[in-house]
Amino acid sequence: MADTLEFNEIYQEVKGSMNDGRLRLSRQGVIFKNSKTGKVDNIQASELAEGVWRRVALGHGLKLLTKNGHVYKYDGFRESEFDKLSDFFKAHYRLELAEKDLCVKGWNWGTVRFGGQLLSFDIGEQPVFEIPLSNVSQCTTGKNEVTLEFHQNDDAEVSLMEVRFYVPPTQEDGVDPVEAFAQNVLSKADVIQATGDAICIFRELQCLTPRGRYDIRIYPTFLHLHGKTFDYKIPYTTVLRLFLLPHKDQRQMFFVISLDPPIKQGQTRYHFLILLFSKDEDISLTLNMNEEEVEKRFEGRLTKNMSGSLYEMVSRVMKALVNRKITVPGNFQGHSGAQCITCSYKASSGLLYPLERGFIYVHKPPVHIRFDEISFVNFARGTTTTRSFDFEIETKQGTQYTFSSIEREEYGKLFDFVNAKKLNIKNRGLKEGMKQSYDEYADSDEDQHDAYLERMKEEGKIREENANDSSDGSGEETDESFNPGEEDDDVAEEFDSNASASSSSGDGDSDRDEKKPAKKAKIVKDRKPRKKQLESKKGKDPNAPKRPMSAYMLWLNANREKIKSDHPGISITDLSKKAGELWKAMSKEKKEEWDRKAEDARRDYEKAMKEYSVGSKSESSKTERSKKKKKKQEKQMKGKVEKKGATSKSLSSTKSPAKNMSESFKSKEFVSSDESSSAESKKEDSEEEGVASLPPSSEESASGSD
Predict the structure, then answer these.
(1) SS (H, E, C) 194-231
(2) How far apart are CA 396 and CA 440, in angstroms?
(3) Most confident among 7-16, 278-287, 520-529 (mean pLDDT)
(4) What is the pLDDT of residue 171?
(5) Domain 341-421 falls in which CATH fold?
């Protein structure tokens, strides 16, 4: 016999909705973990009173009744699993798993039985239907009638809202059967009645969702939010988790209450109640109970008279009444030292808090993602700028959350955190040994810090300090910005004359490249914007005097090493911040000393610039004269070559005038494949054509006639 039985895709019936999850049966008891909310129901083996197996709509179901009257229903079992479950119940729980089928006669009269928190409508010994009284929101009575109203279920497509029972009159004196029926229902129903005085009241608290200022009245079983427009009554049974999160400015605190089912206002559902407190706001609180009642009910967690910060008092009272742990940020620390990251989700900016067992984003809209429901995370480049990146989370259900506009400096810290939590990173792919090490049936709220975890945190801090020390010497990689005027000339532009040199095309395309009109390439190359780009590419003269430093920079260069020695391991950015603080706090007399040094440096710079400008002007005039002289020599050489070419052409034309006459008249568009594409060769061709087309002189014609 196995010590444990596990079932996947089991459905638990809670307030009319079927929540899927995982069920585990062990020697110690029964554990069910809701896949949607992560909530864990733990039933101790000693508390089980009865187990019932029956046929239901989703196959077969298991109904468990406890000794204190609670009922748990789990559906989705196969018929073949009955024997296995029956043997397990006998061996470990010493219970007989009874088989009881529902009555399907279709009769609408019978007997109502109240057992624990369950109303059962029976015909004979067989139940027709059962109603968990915790689903009842209101109970009203008539002459011979009782009406039950139910909480609306947002997850179900169709919800049962009302049931009416006809109660026939009886002959017994002094007992009203209608009133007796209603009292049995109200004693176990989830009906919120604000009877009696509140334990305590917190006035005018700032609430972010739902937005406004609310008075919070604390009652024994529910929380009453009273605002100028709306009222909300929140049973403590609907509170799923509590979070206490410090704001990035270190002056405010968020207190977040997670609700399931959510509170409703029209068609709006609020799954989170977010309160914002100032750390400086204090309060003295007196509970509306005597000291014996406080001690008996809260067992030392609360006292009759308390004082302290407002957020501490609210969180302390809520923790005692709801009986749930308060989740706080873990050992994550961002680039700025805060325990959160500034980012944007959808259209709003907010704060993302990496927790020990998940992520929470506040505040609009609030999002809580547990590690056990994450399929993978992804680090993506920001869509608008290279100074930020996006952090994407995809759940096992296929839902994707994208937190954008995260500063690039936060990348290292966030990546190390995700890596330490062994979450799958999509960019890197699935690595071996990256499977989550936490228990799949563990409650996501259990943030107990054991000695091993504390030791791991200390080691992580030491690694971070060592990383900071090593990063001081190495410069940060930066993305190059796109400056068209400052591009390297290694790769030629399209239509440039030397484009074929840098082209990656094959040899087959080279012939076609040579046959392209060269005139077009020449025009594009000689455009003025291209010249400006080439001129702007020239760097500064290395011989030019350097600009003088400011008083602050002179002081920083003199004291940089001292700051590093006083703060070992300080990063470059933190060093700049620290230096700014020290400079700001420096006295006026000390600053004047550095101001004088800066003024002396400025005078020296102006003097050096005057000398440099005089020298550069004389040098530039010399270079201009040499350029003009060189151009003049080139022009003279060019004229001599052209004259010589024209003479030789004229001599050849006298020998065969008819042939020259036929060859000289060419269309201007005709260019042979072996002719040069340069401007000089075109000019020579035009001169040749002109010489060939001239009529022969009189002397030449006379000699020809001879």
Answers:
(1) CCCCCCEEEEEEEEEECCEEEEEEECCCEEEEECCCCE
(2) 14
(3) 278-287
(4) 66
(5) PH-domain like (2.30.29)
Q: Which long-range contacts (CB under 8 A, 24 or more apart) does 487-494 make?
A: 489/534, 489/537
Q: What strands, in cross-sheet order, belong to the sheet with 118-123?
A: 111-115, 118-123, 126-132
Q: Are strands 59-66 and 71-77 parallel, antiparallel or unpaired?
A: antiparallel
Query: Going by C-beta distance under 8 Å and a sequence separation of 6 or more, which residues neighbour residue 483?
Result: none
344-373 in b/e form (b: 16+ CB < 10 A) is bbeeeebbbbbbbbbbbbbbbebbbbbbbb
Give the dihedral sign, CA 516/520/524/525.
Answer: positive
Q: How confident is the model at residue 351 (pLDDT cuts 50, 70, 90)?
A: very high
- How many CB atoms neighbour CB 170 within 10 A? 10
Tokens 């590093």 sit on residue: 564
606 Rama sector, left if φ>0, alpha if ψ -120 to 50, beta otherwise: alpha
Distance CA(571)–CA(564), nearest Å, equals 9
Residue spans per domain, the chain: 4-99, 111-187, 200-327, 341-421
How far apart are the C-alpha atoms of 399 and 330, rounded to whole Å?
Answer: 25
Give this prediction's pTM: 0.51
User: Is 4-99 a CATH 2.30.29.30 domain?
Assistant: yes
- pLDDT per residue over 248-259, tens digit each? 988 999 999 998
354 and 369 Cβ atoms separated by less than 8 Å: no
Counting beta carbons within 10 angstroms of the beta carbon of residue 552, is it exposed (0 to 12), middle (13 to 18) or buried (19 or more)? middle
CA 327 to chain centre: 20
The answer to whether the 111-187 and 341-421 domains have the same CATH topology is yes
Q: What is the DSSP letter of 539?
A: -
Q: Quick check: bond before 210 cis, omega within 30? A: yes
Question: What pLDDT, on a 0 to 100 scale, did the predictor assign at position 695?
Answer: 46
Alpha-carbon span 687 to 706, nearest angstrom: 30
Measuring CA to CA, which residue among 201, 272, 214, 209 is closest to residue 239? 272
CB 174 within 8 A of CB 194: no
Q: 467 pLDDT exceeds 70?
A: no
**Which CATH architecture does the domain made up of 200-327 adopt?**
Roll (2.30)
Q: Give 111-187's CATH code, choosing from 3.90.870.10, 2.40.10.410, 2.30.29.220, 1.10.10.10.
A: 2.30.29.220
